Amino acid sequence: MSKLPAPPADGFCAQAWEHTAGLQQAIVEHPFNTGLADGSLDREVFAFYIVQDARYLVGFAQALAAASTRADNAEDAAFLSGSANGALVEERRLHAGYVSEFGLTEAEIDGIGTSPSCLAYTSYLRACALTEPYPVLLAAILPCFWVYQHVGTTILESTGDLAEHPYRAWIQTYADDEFAAAVLTARELVDRVAASADDATRQRMLAAFTRATEYEWLFWNSAWTKEAWPTAEFLG
Ligand SMILES: Cc1ncc(C[n+]2csc(CCO)c2C)c(N)n1
């Protein structure tokens, strides 16, 4: 799948992407993602990322499920709750893969703490679900879709044939046509909701989109550094 078409120039999504363009570039150029693209990424760093991502997917699914209860029509509710289910199906798939691909036992998995950045991102999404207006919650959810589609298709452009690529399953998931269609639906939903929001709400939407995109960067960076709690040493 190639890159998505640009969103309508007068809408929220176009404004949000332009506002975060430097950060989007930094995400694509992060050493985690350049290593994912050329296949040089350390397997252990990737395993750390996958374990944290499974934790993230549970929190993200909760935010999507909460958003679906606030939709004002069945089509949007179905999209949001279907995406929540999709995130949980993916969590189950990753979890099953821990054992087969990375040789981790259930006890080892349970012993891996949720990283500070993973907890911060999921806590932020859950907080948006509880305390922010529906349009702001949707703006916080959107980078999860859009940033991954951007990263996946940018990596695919640079790799070409994936037959021998060690991270082909990951790249295929996020450069896939079905996923691109979901990202377009998410963008259209956010543009539509933003169009009938007042200026103050639109400002908060932009802040939420930006914050969630910052958390996307933090998430990759935390895998790259195998981020741990600096306080762990005080707890024995
Ligand atoms: C940190 C992080 N951010 C985004 C995604 C991508 N993602 C997760 S669930 C979903 C859509 C609903 O099924 C998408 C696009 C990820 N895996 N990890």
UniProtKB/TrEMBL annotation:
One of its GO terms (biological process) is thiamine biosynthetic process. Residues 22-225 form the Thiaminase-2/PQQC domain. One of its GO terms (molecular function) is thiaminase activity. SUPFAM superfamilies: Heme oxygenase-like (SSF48613). Keywords: Hydrolase, Thiamine biosynthesis. Its EC number is 3.5.99.2. It holds the Pfam family TENA_THI-4. GO terms for cellular component: cytosol. Coiled coil: none annotated. InterPro entries: Haem_Oase-like_multi-hlx, Thiaminase-2/PQQC, Thiaminase_II, Thiamine_Salvage_TenA. It catalyses: 4-amino-5-aminomethyl-2-methylpyrimidine + H2O = 4-amino-5-hydroxymethyl-2-methylpyrimidine + NH4(+); thiamine + H2O = 5-(2-hydroxyethyl)-4-methylthiazole + 4-amino-5-hydroxymethyl-2-methylpyrimidine + H(+). It is an enzyme of class 3 (hydrolase). Pathway: Cofactor biosynthesis; thiamine diphosphate biosynthesis. The keyword Hydrolase applies. Belongs to the TenA family. Catalyzes an amino-pyrimidine hydrolysis reaction at the C5' of the pyrimidine moiety of thiamine compounds, a reaction that is part of a thiamine salvage pathway. This is Aminopyrimidine aminohydrolase.
